[in-house]
Amino acid sequence: MSRRARTVLVAAIAALLLITVVGPFVYINFIKDDPPERLSLDDVSTTTVGEAGSSTTSGEAAGIEGRWVVADGSTVGYRIQETLFGQGSEAVGRSEGVTGEITIEGSTVTAGSFEVDMATFESSESQRDRQFENRIMEVAEFPTATFELTEPIELGAVPSNGEEVTTTATGDLTLHGVTRPVVIDLVSRLDGSTFAVDGSTTITFTDYGIDDPSGGPASVGEDGELEVLLVFGR
User: Fold this and answer.
1) For residues 43 and 229, is the Cβ–Cβ distance under 8 A?
2) What φ, ψ does residue 88 adopt, rounded to 5°?
3) Distance from C-alpha of 182 to C-alpha of 143, rounded to nearest angstrom
4) Which residues contact 167 (CB under 8 A, 6 or more apart)?
5) Could you report the per-residue pLDDT of 98-109, keeping only the tens digit for each?
6) Which of 105-109, 187-191, 218-222 has the lowest average pLDDT?
7) Which residue, 57, 40, 50, 96, is CA-closest to 73?
8) Is the pTM of this model over 0.90?
9) CATH no. of 39-233
């Protein structure tokens, strides 16, 4: 092989390494925005808006019994581990298009349900959002996802203002047109007129008839995490 041919070969290999290894590494670690932190009760303001649109502030409400409705600040999201040319990353998308309500009697959540508008999910990547809405979740055919509580949630006692309570919610999750039972680990907190619930659970894609979300150079595993932060007001 001539010196010129060797030079061309070395340059081609170097270019390939730059495209397939160095490029993605630089993009993921130095250019791409870091994924959002996990949803947390610390994200909740103690001032929220009730069903009728009236503003209420921590400390005004007495007791916890009654009907609570989903208020501003409620968020549902997904978090998926993905690999791009061998580089690990997290894909995170979120929606604030959430509605729903719960009913509390004594220290027990006796009923609860919420619905998410699947067309309102957004991430940091427009191409990912298009794939999510069309190929993966087929939003035109399955425009909403819902959760309905099937077992009461025992809080143990009426929580004090600012006290965090760890529980689980058992219910039916309908996603991509498929309904399956799920258990969601929850942490809840009462702040006067605001009752907030933060939780997560693992979703296996095939359980809901969701085709492999991998696409192009990005590949993902068999499951992802569903994150929920629900802020309830009177």
Assistant:
1) yes
2) -80, 145
3) 20
4) 153, 154, 155, 186, 187, 188
5) 999 999 999 999
6) 218-222
7) 96
8) no
9) 2.40.128.110
